[in-house]
């Protein structure tokens, strides 16, 4: 049967909001600030064929890999599934991201038949491993990164498997928090399953499935139309991950985008081989970057589902950093390599649809994990990512102090952190002169500075763009690199590498300066009044205004005029 247009649209909207409602349930039920404040989680719904039919506007690196996690996770699991069962997994070579991301899959039944699946993925602040937070910057194999969970039945008939729960509790540093977050994931899937069952009650299974198929077909048609309007050809780009090889050598991500008619192919031949550093990206991460970029450069109003990606073919060499072989470590691939993958893809698409691609954004998630023992002997862990500058756009400035590309998590309020963590925050503000100059200015990075107040802790940093600046476009200048400085309690200061794990002590201070976004267009074409506004707002210094824009701001009158000498 073919449902009418109105029914298809109503079902489409109901499924998308059901995924959003799943996220609301997860956020409101979670224990950790990483989920309840930063919203580091993602939710989606799948049909009975395990195809993505609807997703919430959550984390791109989660969502893009979720289809792989559901399909491979269910294929890998050899047991049966009944009413009220849920599968838990985090094995990156199955779930597609990294160990802190726990994926929970729930079959949705009507009678004795599975009619769909609800699934969610949430980043847990600790899953064991060699360092608190489970993002060790010096891991050389997967087994050092935490507890590896293949697809296992965590929930059976609506009840939690207590033996498995006890196993998880015994392998993590903050078990009450982790189990609270898992229960929040259970609540999210229950919400999604309930909403799908309500649709079945209203329309019937046959109409629901036919509507799902129509929605996916619609997305395919719209995506193919977008691709057909692009010029045919092969477009290549390369970008780099910093200080990965012995002696500080870089590794490269090389991608060739072949556009033919209404289809597109991505080839990663020439990408560096996998390394014994935690920057290898599981295939799910690579796919997520491709899907995110494709939606970004076409029409963002296209409903995201399996139909969008039917025109896509991939070639990602096995054994490369974008498709590693087990047991390569992958903790940073999900957070850092994913960002560099998008930079390479955007650079390629800047040749195909130049009016739709911004300059490079900060290109990192600025991952900070830290933990240890409080003065009373109880364990604590903390994880956050920190925003920076987004790249300037063809039609406007980049955004200051924001998460970009593969993550869109929220700010963690300082007040929430200081209330229960041994951290005292000294600064949280935008970083002047970090956005690349251009007709449209790149977004500014962030300064975030705190001091440890407990006896000692293990700090892990996982970041990028500390050496290679985020590139500008069309004559725009690159953004500033990131800088992490550790100031010991005795006043001794040292610049940290972009990836490191160290021990810090009471009174030590970490100052984080995140990268800015690249500029777009000739800086000399920027209107002096806009430069003046940036100076007044503290985003550009008077010295930088004159140096990069040729604009002199009179300190007495506040007038801004372009220095004629700069125009020659």
List its salient traits.
568 residues; alpha+beta; seven-stranded antiparallel sheet; five-stranded antiparallel sheet; 22 strands; globular
Description:
The protein has twelve helices and 22 strands. It is of the alpha+beta class and 568 residues long. Among the domains are: 5-220, no CATH class; 358-526, no CATH class. Strands 2-1-5-4-3-6-7 form a seven-stranded antiparallel sheet, sandwiched between helices. Strands 14-15-20-17-18 form a five-stranded antiparallel sheet. Strands 8-9-10-11 form a four-stranded mixed sheet. A hairpin with a 4-residue loop joins strand 1 and strand 2. It is globular and about 80 Å long. The termini are far apart. The mean pLDDT is 95.
Radius of gyration: 24 Å
Distance between the termini: 70 Å
Average pLDDT figure: 95
User: Helical segment tally?
Assistant: 12
The fraction of residues assigned to DSSP E strands is: 15-25%
Helix percentage: 25-40%
Query: Judging from the principal axes of the Cα atoms, what is the shape?
Result: globular
**Sheet bearing the most strands, described?**
7 strands, antiparallel
By helix and strand content, what is the structural category? alpha+beta
* Strand ordering within the main sheet: 2-1-5-4-3-6-7
Low-confidence stretches: none
Subunit organisation of the chains: single chain
Q: How many strand units?
A: 22
């Amino acid at each position: 049967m073919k449902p009418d247009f109105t029914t298809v649209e109503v079902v489409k909207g109901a499924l998308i909001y059901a995924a959003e409602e799943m996220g609301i349930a997860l956020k409101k039920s979670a224990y950790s600030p990483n989920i309840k404040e930063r919203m580091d989680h993602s939710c989606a719904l799948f049909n009975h064929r395990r195809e993505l039919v609807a997703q919430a506007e959550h984390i791109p690196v989660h969502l893009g890999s979720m289809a792989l996690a559901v399909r491979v996770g269910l294929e890998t699991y050899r047991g049966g599934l009944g009413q009220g069962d849920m599968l838990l997994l985090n094995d990156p070579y199955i779930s597609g991201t990294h160990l802190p991301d726990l994926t929970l899959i729930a079959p949705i039944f009507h009678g004795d038949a599975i009619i769909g699946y609800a699934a969610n993925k949430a980043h847990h602040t600790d899953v064991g491993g060699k360092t608190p937070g489970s993002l060790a910057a010096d891991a050389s194999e997967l087994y050092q990164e935490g507890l590896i969970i293949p697809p296992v039945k965590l929930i059976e008939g609506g009840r939690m498997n207590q033996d498995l729960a006890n196993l998880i509790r015994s392998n993590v540093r903050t078990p009450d928090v982790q189990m609270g977050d898992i229960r929040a994931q259970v609540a999210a899937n229950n919400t999604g399953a309930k909403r799908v069952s309500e649709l079945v009650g209203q329309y019937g299974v046959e109409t629901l499935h036919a509507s799902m198929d129509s929605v996916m077909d619609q997305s395919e048609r719209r995506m193919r139309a977008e691709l057909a309007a692009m010029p045919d050809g092969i477009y290549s780009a390369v970008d780099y991950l910093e200080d990965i090889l012995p002696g500080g050598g870089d590794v490269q991500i090389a991608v060739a985008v072949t556009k033919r008619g209404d289809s597109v192919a991505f080839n990663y031949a020439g990408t560096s081989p996998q390394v014994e550093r935690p920057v290898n990206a599981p295939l799910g991460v690579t796919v997520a970057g491709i899907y995110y970029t494709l939606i970004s450069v076409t029409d963002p109003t296209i409903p995201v589902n399996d139909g969008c990606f039917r025109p896509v073919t991939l070639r990602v060499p096995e054994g490369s950093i974008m498709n590693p072989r087990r047991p390569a470590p992958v903790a940073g691939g999900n957070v850092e390599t994913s960002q560099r993958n998008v930079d390479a893809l955007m650079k390629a698409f800047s040749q195909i649809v130049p009016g739709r691609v911004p300059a490079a954004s900060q290109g990192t998630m600025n991952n900070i994990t830290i933990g240890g023992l409080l003065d009373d002997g109880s364990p604590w862990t903390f994880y956050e990512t920190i925003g920076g500058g987004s790249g300037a756009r063809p039609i406007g400035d980049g955004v200051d102090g924001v998460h970009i590309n593969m993550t869109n998590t929220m700010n963690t309020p300082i007040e929430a952190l200081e209330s229960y963590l041994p951290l005292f925050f000294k600064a949280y503000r935008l970083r002047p002169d970090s956005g690349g100059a251009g007709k449209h200015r790149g977004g500014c990075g962030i300064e975030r500075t705190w001091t440890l107040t407990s006896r000692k802790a293990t700090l892990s940093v996982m970041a990028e763009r500390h050496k290679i600046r985020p590139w500008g476009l069309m004559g725009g200048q690159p953004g500033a690199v990131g800088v992490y400085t550790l100031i010991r309690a005795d006043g001794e200061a040292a610049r940290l590498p972009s990836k490191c794990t160290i021990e810090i002590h009471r009174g030590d201070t970490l100052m984080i300066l995140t990268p800015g976004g690249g500029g777009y267009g000739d800086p000399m074409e920027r209107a002096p009044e806009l430069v003046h506004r940036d100076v007044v707002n503290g985003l550009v210094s008077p010295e930088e205004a004159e140096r990069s824009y040729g604009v002199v701001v009179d300190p007495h009158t506040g007038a801004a005029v372009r220095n004629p000498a700069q125009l020659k």
